[in-house]
Amino acid sequence: MSETNNSSSGSRRSFLKKSSMGAAAVASAATLNMGKFAHAAGTRETVRIGLIGCGGRGSGAIQNALNASPQNEVVGLCDMFEDRLNFCRKTLEAKKKDQTKVTDDTCFLGFDGYKKLLDTDVDVILLCTPPYFRPMQLKAAIEAGKHVFCEKPVAVDAPGVRSVLETTELAKKKGLSIVSGLCWRYDYMVKDLVGKIMDGYIGDITAIQENYLTGLLWQKNREKDWTEMHYQLKNWLYFHWLSGDHIAEQHIHSLDKAMWLMGDTPPMKAYGCGGRQTRTDARFGNVYDHFAVCYEWANGVKTFAYCRQQGGKIFRETDDHVYGTNGRAKILGNQIIMNDKVAYKYEGERPNMYDVEHVALFDGIRNDKPINNGVYMSYSTLMAILGREVCYTGQQITWDQMMKSENKLGPDKLEFGDIPVPEVAMPGQTKFK
Ligand SMILES: NC(=O)c1ccc[n+]([C@@H]2O[C@H](COP(=O)([O-])OP(=O)(O)OC[C@H]3O[C@@H](n4cnc5c(N)ncnc54)[C@H](O)[C@@H]3O)[C@@H](O)[C@H]2O)c1
Question: Is residue 79 part of a domain?
């Protein structure tokens, strides 16, 4: 073993320590220490992973991270609730026994659990909690010198997006990775089709239509000993302060593709309509069940974005329709159509995109080429928030107005107990703030 390998653990720890130093010293220290870390990792050093948010996606994401390299280990878990954490831990111990090194001392619960996990010697953090918590947890993770996998959306309001943009810059200075859970950007077929369209295969883009027309999701019944905070956390999808509403929580996958096709340039303005027709019961919190938004770019191109979460026999489609001067494409439908005939289909290999994004994250760390998806994940999140706000208020709102918004969602204090139930927004009455 080389000298570097013998002291690999020390090198890694000193890298982590130094990456939480003040901004002025950060750039040079990061370069120096990334080199040490990458060298050690490149010789198959273990990379230690912590998961924050052990629910459905978190339990999947941690397995994707472990699939990325046999030298990756999960060493710590954090969740708000013990049952979720224990279920995730047991699943990992059954499915990924050799790579699971979680102990009772490295399991953390509650609102501050993430701070305790960040205080341990994990190298990489996966952020898979409801979106409201993302800005604060991402900031803390980067300040603590951790590389991050960050689920979408990254915020529920403009102050949150601005915080994520600042953290993105800090991560760049520190040489730390932020890989986004906007997973379609890592899908081989989608990358190929978007690339072809951006290279002019169908001429200039004239319009995009994004559909996420789908059914109902899970909902949990209130239990006797639950406070209102407990209920809202367990049913986070239905409270706009926690999820951003489904235009942000789910339709962001489509909006992100439109933003990508437009060269990651934000739209100038938007207007739209939406409401709740089928999910009117109080158990569904304050979110809408449908949105239809028109986004307009400076060059006149428009994206018409429809999303719906309703049950029963209704038309369902999740696809991206792109119209150009010479043809059209359906991205998830894998078709480029010219003169009414399929002119191109992707036929290459198509590994699981969730694995691919983690391979990219860990390869970047090991090869000293950290990936930073922070800007596009923030812009796509703001695009979704803009769509929500034009529908909630009934106003036309510009990107600049949205980016400057001071409307901070969520309760004053994060603690279990009584918190307000947010009102359902009413266009024409709900004010843009
Ligand atoms: N990229 C994708 O395709 C994809 C798919 C599904 C979900 N997601 C995203 O992943 C995130 C999680 O979604 P999910 O489906 O796993 O939800 P989930 O409810 O199954 O899991 C969320 C977990 O976070 C925990 N939690 C809540 N607040 C917390 C806090 N402050 N600290 C620590 N833990 C906390 C919950 O107890 C729960 O176990 C969401 O942002 C969602 O949009 C992305």
Answer: yes
